[in-house]
UniProtKB/TrEMBL annotation:
InterPro entries (UniProt xref): CbiG_hydrolase (IPR052553), CobE/GbiG_C (IPR002750), CobE/GbiG_C_sf (IPR036518)
Segments forming domain CobE/GbiG C-terminal: 8-128
PANTHER family xref list: COBALT-PRECORRIN-5A HYDROLASE
Natural source organism: Methylobacterium brachythecii
Protein name as it appears in the record: Cobalt-precorrin 5A hydrolase
TM stretches of this protein: none
Signal sequence extent: none
Keyword presence, ATP-binding: no
GO biological process, one term: cobalamin biosynthetic process
Enzyme class (EC, first level): hydrolase
Amino acid sequence: MSRPPREIVAGVGFRHATQADEIVMLVREGLAAAGHAPDRLLALATAEDRAGESPLREAADALGCPVIGVSPEALRAVDACVPTRSARMEAERGIGSLAEAAALAGAGAGAVLILPRIASAGATLALAGVSA
């Protein structure tokens, strides 16, 4: 029996004090809410200037996937498809939601948002499906 393909990219935004376990919990919560098993997760995506931070790297290791750092240009390129609008994110990064934009840009051309932004105390998450 073959395994289902890894086809979901989790876009993640997080505050500097956020711990890896909070990110892992939010990703698992989001996957469950969208009706997907954890083994469908392809990658975690975030802004490239945050991609190397320890909490996100540790969360990716715990989830068994890589981290994708998304350039500011790629985040802005998908912003028209981002349904959530945060005044703070628009002021800081010129996009409505880091989690949604990172998920869509990280999943590539033709990606579809399958879970709009959800949040925990220190992180945000959105899921996008990779186009077949």
